[in-house]
Amino acid sequence: MTPRIHSNPISEVPPAHKSPRWLQEFADCIHSVDELLELLSLAANDLPFEVEHADRFSLRVPRSYVARMRPQDANDPLLLQVLPRKSESQEQTLFTADPVGDLPATKQCGILQKYASRVLLMTTSSCAVHCRYCFRREYPYEGGVAKGAEMDAALTSIDADPSITEVILSGGDPLSLATPALRSLLGRIEDIGHVKRVRIHTRFPIVLPARVDKDLLTTFANVSKRLTIVLHANHANELEQDCAEAIRQLHKSGVALLNQSVLLRGVNDSVEALANLSEALHDLGALPYYLHALDRVRGAHEYFVDDARGIKLIEGLRQILPGYLVPRFVRELAGEPSKTALA
To answer: Which end of the chain is more exposed for a tag (fewer CB within 10 A), N or C?
Structure first.
């Protein structure tokens, strides 16, 4: 596997003594399996699987996210999403490095286009958390993220194509960009007349809620185009403490808030877990959008839930929730012109 490449957020912000709180927390993430287990009063032999200490796809998790994990619970649904497993190194049939066809969809450095009328702009290689099931855990970020002249070229390309009506900021996580850099990028996109909508896919408000500060909220409030924030929460336990307040503040700022989840074995593969997540999201002002079947990325096979099981879960949700709280169960297939509905 190719090691994950990380941008250095420190280089994109003012000196450390002026750094906002979120950046300090970003720099203080946990990278050690031993430290993580110690904080949770767990030993390696308490776990239902053998942990991995290698750094091919390293552990990275914010302390505020760890604070929402249940101490001494080896099956905590938040812990299971981030703790490296020895089995990740096992090769599995149908599990590949690029399960959703990102590389064939690359038009130029920084631009992926899979669907008509919208493009994905790769803004950074950095994330606040390393989810073990990440479909981009082997993405070649070096050469794939637009910076400097490459970003100029990417925006020029978007400006020259009037068929593009939506720009989606992705990466990595676009909220790992310093707010001035993000504000500048949004302003340049706003100058492209035929772009009607901007979408930001992010896990920051879930795993490092301090990112949602006054400066960021003001930046979002000043975007004149329709702005949609797509969160990524998989379990209701993630939506507690400061995370809940961050989502409330985003909702109050006027952005459209959606959530997409991944169906993960041992984490949220029950009607109760998915229903609790939908209810909690709605209470905070976000609507369930997609429940993704696991992208079959190499190393993530332990999380796989078969489609028949997923369909039964959606049927169970429909029996107890109003329709607007039932996410669409979908899979992304390389080369297809849209997500494929499974239920």
So the answer is: N
Contact between 88 and 132 under an 8 Å Cβ cutoff? The reply is: yes
Final residue of a structural domain among 28, 57, 89: 89
CA distance 321 to 317: 6
Domain count, the chain: 2
pLDDT the model gives residue 143: 86
Q: Are 210 and 25 in contact (CB under 8 A)?
A: yes
CA dist 48 → 79, 87, 187, 244 (Å): 12, 12, 48, 30
Q: Is residue 294 in a domain? A: yes
Among residues 230, 111, 200, the alpha carbon closest in space to that of 159 is found at: 111
Q: List the helix and strand counts (H, then E) for the chain.
A: 11, 10
Contact 69, 75 (CB under 8 A): no
- The conformation of residue 206, written as its DSSP 8-state character, comes to H
Contacts of residue 80, defined as CB under 8 A and 6 or more positions apart, other chains included, come to 264, 266, 267
Query: If pLDDT is split at 50, 70 and 90, which confidence band does 2 have?
Result: very low
pLDDT, tens digit, 9 for 90 and up, residues 160-191? 999 999 999 999 999 999 999 999 999 999 99
Sign, CA torsion 72/75/80/86: positive
Which residues, 6 or more positions from 317, have their beta carbon under 8 angstroms from its beta carbon? Answer: 271, 274, 275, 278, 325, 326
Kindly state whether residues 305 and 239 are assigned to the same domain: yes
What CA–CA distances, in Å, run from 65 to 47, 60, 69, 280? Answer: 19, 11, 7, 17
Contacts of residue 23, Cβ cutoff 8 Å, sequence gap at least 6: 9, 10, 13, 178
Same domain, 278 and 305: yes
Instruction: Give the neighbor-by-neighbor strand order of the sheet with 166-170.
Output: 106-108, 111-112, 118-122, 166-170, 197-202, 226-231, 256-262, 287-292, 328-331, 340-341
Q: What is the pLDDT of residues 299-308, one digit of tens each?
A: 999 999 999 9
